[in-house]
Amino acid sequence: MTGTVVVGVDGSPTARKAAEAARDLAAALGATLHVVSAFDGDRTERFGSGSDKWLVSDADKAEHVARTVADTLGGDIRITYSAASGRPADAIIREAIRKEARVIVVGNRRMHGIGRVLGSVANSVAHNAPCDVYIANTYDAD
After folding, report:
1. pLDDT of residue 64
2. Contact, 84 vs 94, CB < 8 A?
3. Fewest CB atoms within 10 A around its CB: which of 9, 20, 57, 71?
4. CA-CA distance, 40 to 58, in Å (whole number)?
5. What are phi and psi of 40, to 5 degrees?
6. Mean pLDDT in each 10-residue stretch from start to end of the chain (142 residues)?
7. What CATH superfamily is the domain 4-44+52-141?
8. CA proximity to 124, closest of 86, 67, 69
9. Helix, strand, coil share (%) of the chain residues, nearest 5
10. Is the dihedral of CA 118, 63, 41, 98 positive or negative?
11. Which residues, in sequence order, are CB contacts of 107 under 8 Å at separation 6+?
12. What is the pLDDT of residue 75?
């Protein structure tokens, strides 16, 4: 199989474990791995020291998270990354549609107990995905 495997990350240990599972799945399938980090809104903060000024936005932070995870996954596969605006589940699904993904990988964080009742990213993705969904066991990542 060729195509793309999409995984959402937020910098947490559980998201990292899901990304590692996505990397392994992409390698086994001969697919590209696309790492995406969501951001809600686009607040911009200004930082400066003397005449040096920096602008840091939510989009920049999300892209940094995605790039950092992508850069550290290694392996013999093609890995791309991006930041996507919106709630995490919605952003992952939009990226999967944009990339014509064959599989989305999400962790199973908050899929039991009260989180299951209130919802989770994995639950929302599983119910609305345009492709197959692989739910990685991430319980021991915290």
Report:
1. 92
2. yes
3. 71
4. 8
5. -105, 115
6. 90 93 96 94 63 66 94 91 93 96 88 49 92 90 62
7. HUPs (3.40.50.620)
8. 86
9. 40, 30, 30
10. negative
11. 14, 15, 17, 18, 122, 135, 136, 137, 138, 141
12. 75
Q: Where are the domains of the chain?
A: 4-44+52-141
Query: Of 44, 126, 36, 45, nearest to 88 (Cα)?
Result: 36
List the end-to-end C-alpha distance of the chain, in Å, as a whole number: 32
The pair of three-digit structure tokens given for residue 126, joined into one six-digit string? 């599983």
Please classify residue 84 by burial: count the beta carbons closer than 10 Å to its beta carbon, then call 0-12 exposed, 13-18 middle and 19+ buried: buried
pLDDT given for residue 115 in this prediction? 44
| Amino acid at residue number 27 | A
Tokens 């919802």 locate to 119
8-state DSSP, 78: -
Report the predicted TM-score, pTM, of the whole model to 2 decimal places: 0.83
